[in-house]
Amino acid sequence: MLNKRLKNIDLKKIKFHDSFWNRYIDLVDDVILPFQWELINDNVENAEKSYCIQNFHVACGDIEGEHQGVVFQDTDLAKWLEAVAYSIAKKSNPKLESIADKAIDLIARAQCEDGYLNTYYTITRKPRWSNLYEGHELYTAGHMIEAAVAYYEATGKKKFLGVVCRFADYMCEVFGEEEGKICGYPGHPEVELALVKLYNVTGIRRYLELANYFVRTRGKEPNYFLSEDSFKNQNFIFPEFKYFDLKYSQSHQPIHKQVTAEGHAVRAVYLYSAMADLAFEYQDEELLKQCDIIWNNIVEKKMYITGSIGSAAFGERFTTDYDLPNNTNYSESCATVGLAMFSNRMFQITKDGKYMDIVEKALYNTLLAGIAMDGKHFFYVNPLEVVPKIVENNPTMRHVKTNRQLWFGVACCPPNIARTLASLGNYTYAMEGNSLYINLFISSKLEANLDSGKVILDLNSNYLKDGEITLLVNPENENQEFTIALRKPSFTKNATIKVNGIVNKYHFDKGYMYFNRKWKTGDTITLNLDVSFRYVRSNPRVRDNIGKVSLMKGPLVYCLEEIDNGPYLSSIKIDTSIIPKEKYNQTLLGGTMCGLLQGMRIDYSKTGDKLYDEKKPIYVEDTFLAVPYCCWNNRGKGEMLVWMREK
Amino acid sequence: MLNKRLKNIDLKKIKFHDSFWNRYIDLVDDVILPFQWELINDNVENAEKSYCIQNFHVACGDIEGEHQGVVFQDTDLAKWLEAVAYSIAKKSNPKLESIADKAIDLIARAQCEDGYLNTYYTITRKPRWSNLYEGHELYTAGHMIEAAVAYYEATGKKKFLGVVCRFADYMCEVFGEEEGKICGYPGHPEVELALVKLYNVTGIRRYLELANYFVRTRGKEPNYFLSEDSFKNQNFIFPEFKYFDLKYSQSHQPIHKQVTAEGHAVRAVYLYSAMADLAFEYQDEELLKQCDIIWNNIVEKKMYITGSIGSAAFGERFTTDYDLPNNTNYSESCATVGLAMFSNRMFQITKDGKYMDIVEKALYNTLLAGIAMDGKHFFYVNPLEVVPKIVENNPTMRHVKTNRQLWFGVACCPPNIARTLASLGNYTYAMEGNSLYINLFISSKLEANLDSGKVILDLNSNYLKDGEITLLVNPENENQEFTIALRKPSFTKNATIKVNGIVNKYHFDKGYMYFNRKWKTGDTITLNLDVSFRYVRSNPRVRDNIGKVSLMKGPLVYCLEEIDNGPYLSSIKIDTSIIPKEKYNQTLLGGTMCGLLQGMRIDYSKTGDKLYDEKKPIYVEDTFLAVPYCCWNNRGKGEMLVWMREK
């Protein structure tokens, strides 16, 4: 019997006031969401056309035209609405809510009589569900459902929820093992986790059962996708699909046999998230164990130190254990979002801090690297080593960009980043009964309704600078007894905790420090975590990182940039016997703790013109400046390097 | 005014008896050519179908059917015939010649009334010359012409030459600046150098002029390719062409403005070969200078140490200066053949040994790596670093094979390797007037007709072992005066030359040691070249080779293989302060000089399971065995590494 699952705290009850994170969080409300609305309405000059809203108008018959954009173009609107929901949940925004309401009206009008909702198939009149492998109908449905659930939770308004319930009811009639039903499942998982959310908010069990059906049918023999016309005739919407194997879509074997992370990284982590949900809902300990095995395969064999996944661009996919090239990888921003989703679910079910360590790594590094500090430019692909001249001239790296882009043709990542930032509270805190979990150390004020009564907690974090975090506890009732669980990050060598200045005993379990106590108004917890700079090395089975080190401070991975260190970053050797110096720069990148490293570099002025020669290069001593990886490429195009050679 | 151009020596007059090279040369006659004939006749089980001969029968109307294979499938037969020509020029082979004669009859029957010859366009009845960018008609024509010229030179038979002259006459009517003619040029250069050969053998100047027209028109504004339907409608035979720029086909600017090597590597070096030919034929010193600039750009900025070119698989192309990744590169065997062709032409025109250094590098390393020691398996792609598990699971390297393949769908490389091996004499020696050039030190006996009379020369080479080469000179006339020019490879620090045991004076010029002397029967030249093992480093502008060394001995690049050194070759650090030991192994790979290197490697038994950790790996001292790169992968699948980390 599994424990109770931890729950999110209502986003309305969490107010962030963090000098680091609010840069990004505030961008979502103030810049990204208004900007993305203009983008999906094709009102931004010089941006690639989205056609997203236009497609809905065509589907409604408001205007004439054809469907444009990719088959899953509708998800841009869904993910935008989901982010809007989280945003207005945190902070009322009548203007944004009114725009969202109108967008929901448009969606409702685009829904077919029978509940079906998808502008591509509606406009093109192609047969529904005829290409589950590539058609993305269920994927698109999943994002609609997630948005509708979030919007209902944020506003209490039921219209959008009603739309997706009608759609889900229709899907329940269409899919299943029963005769006359389609016994298929989505090529791109997503609807499964969405249906679990819809079940949780409506209590309608058939939604959970449909999710369960989709997941448990996946990959069974004979493989459903092979029976579809696209496979049989090798006539694909996406021509490259003919080169993909069934692992690409995690349908190479039944899910209960899958113990390694395979295929397209986003598909994979969305599927694993649903598997975790179902393990809990069905109290299936075997499945939960399997999720943990897959999760371990990712984080101990297939994950970049920045919390990104997907070692190959072709197929945007996992490759093999310990294959982590730094410059040809895909490391899609969306896959990192999915990894955080999967890890957060595993944490909520198991209360094991190891999962939250990865959430933290993913959010602090790759998620933020995906977005520019102006909130308007995005990376889909997140390499750990970039030499612009090579990236721009060697088509092996044609998926890599040397500057963040305004908006891509396939706009999955920007709204995915936005909805994650807008729902940051769901990762930061969790609760259950009379226990409050503090997972991420982001300055914020929250109000939690524990069994023992309401608690107001003010968290002030200096986590990224000196590792000191203070929590001011204000319980509703004097001497209110409850448990505060503080995460102890796995990188921390020392953690000291004081309550009102006195070192306090605590119970430590799976990465969490548990205090049970009768709390008084004004009780102050002071947590000191060791976040001094540290050099981290790869397992030497990772060919690309042999002889190299990376620099970390707390959860942040650091990197070298050309603007600070000149070109030919690969020629630098770091002397790791010398402790890196902290150097806070008030003006750099909105205020940044930099690392000053000692080492040497090749003197290129003494290098001849010969391509091959017996002579050795000449090294000179030098000092190097490292900045957080998440901030890279905010000062123009240039080289960047995470894994540095070690002297 | 350019000097006279050096000439090839009649292949009939060169007999190789070299323990290293004859392994491969004999394979061509005994194994490769008979085997390839079966392959292009689709008689080899488990090999991919070629359809090459079948297409000719369909084109003749012998059988009904459609064209199968790629648009340039005819070139398999052309390149096979060219190799047969060189082979029977060296050593009479009536059986092979009779097969070749019949194949030529078939080609002649497939020729159209007006001289046009191409089974793809004949069978499909697609409009001729409608897609010069991709259609490969002129490319295919070029290979037919090269084959016919070689066959005529080998056998004196004129039938095939007549066929291609009729074709060339027709092309002269079709292409040109005059009104009513097509003012285009080939997407894939090849016909240009072939037309120069045809001119040289027939003396018909319009063939030279057509070659000149093609080369000088290339890349002029408005670009011809952009006027073709395939470009205008973005409807390509090869879908990936829509992603290629004009640099891909070296048509981005007029050739007199091109000073860097760009685009598809095979296309490039075939074009540059023709440019060199035309520079000589038109006595165009500017063009020759430009060829030298491009050649320098290749060998000093874009060439692997193994003499291969093409840093990217997508587009099989050059990328940018100093971009030489070792595991994702293309380095096509055919491109190396083309580089040897270009370099040999430049040498023949300038008599500069720097060009021959590159011919030697290309032939000894990449050309031979392209072929298995069984003569039946081939590499198209020649990486310098292979980890099979990664290559097989990371689609970034899906172009790389971990074992040589029997025959590929597009069979360009195997016949290209065969024709190069069969014509090795054209690279080994050259002559002009009263001078005999010895370029490569391959044991052989030759007869050269110099102005002063015939000379028989017996070269016995221990080049790869100890660098001692002896030449027994037998002039037709006693005291016959002539010049022997011996190449001094640029890597050689010391070269001592004795004639009949006495150190001799010589004139040194651009890499050649010139002896002019009255030669007597039995005069013996002894050349001692320093071929001791040496460590070679890359220019540190090559990011991928920073901190690494390669091992060379004479012209041979060495590598580490897993079968000798275990896995994780990247973890090895070589102590280059210790001189590598020579270790001759009589049985290994047909008798091979190995290198024994001292260094250290990571002890993986002491490596934990963590992916990221602060602890350093533990190194242990070890000895490593290096073998010639050209012999790699002849003992099963495994890791291979050229650039080793330096301690």
> How does the helix and strand content of chain A classify structurally?
alpha+beta
Strand order of the largest sheet of chain A: 1-5-6-7-13-9-10
Low-confidence stretches of chain A: none
> Percent of residues of chain A in beta strands?
15-25%
Indicate the mean pLDDT of chain A. Answer: 95
- Name the chain pair whose interface involves the most residues: A-B, 58 and 58 residues
Number of strands of chain A: 23
Rg value of chain A: 25 Å
Straight-line N-to-C gap of chain A: 52 Å
- Summed up, the helix count of chain A is 18
Largest sheet data of chain A: 7 strands, antiparallel
Overall 3D shape of chain A: globular
Written account of the structure:
- The structure is a homodimer of 647-residue chains.
- By secondary structure, chain A is of the alpha+beta class.
- Among the domains of chain A are: 433-529, Immunoglobulin-like (Sandwich), CATH 2.60.40.1180; 534-646, no CATH class.
- Helix content of chain A is 35%, strand content 19%.
- Chain A has a seven-stranded antiparallel beta sheet.
- In chain A, helix 8 (191-202) packs parallel to helix 11 and helix 9 (205-217) crosses helix 11.
- Chain A is globular and about 70 Å long.
- At the A-B interface, helix 12, helix 15, strand 14 and strand 20 of A face helix 12, helix 15, strand 14 and strand 20 of B.
- Strand 20 of chain A pairs antiparallel with strand 14 (534-538) of chain B, so a sheet runs across the interface.
